Amino acid sequence: MNILGINAYHGDVSSVLLSDGELVVALEEERFSRIKHCAGFPTQSIRACLDVAGLEAKDIDHFAVSRDPGAHRMRRYAYALRHRPSLGLLVDRLRNRAQVTGVADALGDALGISPGDVSRRLHFVEHHPAHLASAFFVSPFDDAAVCAIDGFGDFVSTSLAQGVGSCVRVIDRVFFPHSLGLLYLAITQWLGFPNYGDEYKVMGLAPYGAPELTRQIRQLLHLEAGGKFSLSLSYFRHGAESVSMKWDEGSPEIGRVFTPELEALLGPARKPDMPLSARHEAVAASLQVVFEEAVFHVLRALHQRTGKPRLCLAGGCAMNSVANGKIRENTPFTDVFIQPAAGDNGTALGAAFHVWHEVLGKPRGFVMRHSLWGPAYDASHCSEAIRARASDLGDVGRMRQLEDPRELVDWTAERLASGRVVGWFQGRMEWGARALGNRSILADPRRTQMRDILNTKIKLREKFRPFAPSVLEERALDYFEGAVADPFMLHVYPVVPEQRDSIPGVTHVDGTGRVQTVSERDNPLFHRLLRAFEARTGVPVLINTSFNENEPIVNEPSEALDCFLRTGMDVLVLGNHVLEKRASSESSDTVEALAGRA
Hints:
alpha/beta, Nucleotidyltransferase, domain 5, 3 domains, 22 helices, disordered C terminus, 9-stranded mixed sheet, 5-stranded mixed sheet
């Protein structure tokens, strides 16, 4: 039985395919559209799911959409009557609801079948139950507390639940207009980061500041009994005014969500082109402190109500890896599971598993142990991409194929140890926001200057942005305090003080790192590369950042080659092809000859 799950007409639209309860493919539309956080309808990723799985539209038994236009209808009506939101706000919401309601037409167009054929197999799954399902049903836990914290979806911002076997039971909710996601978004916008998804920049900025403004930030939020909370709505526009939101094709957009009262409290909002000041850093630091207080308040209440030692967490706020790394220290939970697409992209996964378990009543069986659920490209695809760009390879001095994986790993480890920056393109593409060893840019963490080199010559981004460490799973505790196995890079831990001088390239200004552990079972080639680097340097850690430059993570070989050529990357390992930019004295004739043989 095949189930296609989709997230549509929201940010980070995506598609997944299950076959008999096993995940087969999971894809984000942005990897195909090349538009970050792509909104609209995931046509290309739907078609790619079927291509990767070798299926046709007729093979799909159920379609699951992670929205329910009818959810909490009476509560919505009551809120509208009580608060009389602007006409523009109502029109925006009604238009988006109409798109979701008409999803059968869009699915039919994407798959070349009739809308009626889709409708007979279509399930609308409420946004937050999809989040909850995405966390619990792919976790290794049969019994756990489950929580989703995000901006909003189907009028809900936070859900508390308990998962047992093939069932997730919602215990409590926090409804619109109160949201920890909106709190973080408002300050993100005030800090001059206006783009959808920019909250991670604030998390990276926070360690540079002192949390001197927590008293002011706490005025925006009230913590209440039972894990509840409410916003001080005078600081926010979304409850009554028309905040523009664009969920059509292309990049999602959200208008300014804070009122002039926030500027009266914190001062004038920063414009995007203004330099960052100490006050901006202090606001970011204070926001992170208050956000963590609120998250732990919710989670402690959830533990009290369930008594469960294990936690499954989802929602956009679950991407706050700094808070995630402190959950076990600040709540009674002893084990935490977060899958790599915890944001709205992951609701496609949750909708599909909700249908499999809660609609069809099927038992559990699948556990997500890695993120490698996208397409793969063989040596012929890589050779074709190289031949297509042969005329642009004048700066490439060495180009060859290394058929033996041991030789490939040893060659790459030598370049990394000598300070070269390597684009590493292997196997199936990752699912979620992080590149985790198959679409990665890798570098030597022992070099203090490497962070500045990567930010200014390759990633072309703000200098305060940190880089994450990938570490051999069996060596993680030697370098990161309290670290547990996490292949998805969703927890920040302190770097062991004695090791900070040995890995300065991944040690953030506050002495922490966002850790990915790499196991031999789940990614044997990347594990072997880490071991080869350790054999040469004594350090089982590499800098790992996503293979991109102000764009979505690369998917195809041609995109990897483009990124390699237009940035300051030194080496590209494209499957078993290796390309190394030459010194000016090397002959371009040699390059052209190699390109012809690739």
